[in-house]
Amino acid sequence: MARAMETGNHAAGYALAVAGEANRDARGCACGAYPITPQSEIIEFLRGFDFTKGRVIPVESEHSAMAVCIGASLAGARAFTASSANGLAYMVENIFAAGFYRLPIVLIAVNRTLGPPWNIWVDQGDSLMLRDAALLQFYAESHQDLVDTILVAFRVGEDQRVLLPALVALDGFVTSHTQMVVDLPERELVDRYLPHCNIPHRLRGEHPATIGGLTWPRETEHHRVEIQEAMERVPQVLAEALDEFEHVFGRRPHGALSAEHTDDADTVLMACNTMVRTLRNVVTARRDKGERIGMINSKMFRPFPRQELLAAVSNAKRIGVLDRNHSPGSGGIFWQEVAATLQSRPDVIVQDYLVGLGGGDVTPEVIDEIIDDLNAREKAGEPVWKEVAA
Question: Which of 42, 159, 230, 327 has the fewest C-beta atoms under 10 angstroms from its C-beta?
Answer without folding.
Answer: 327
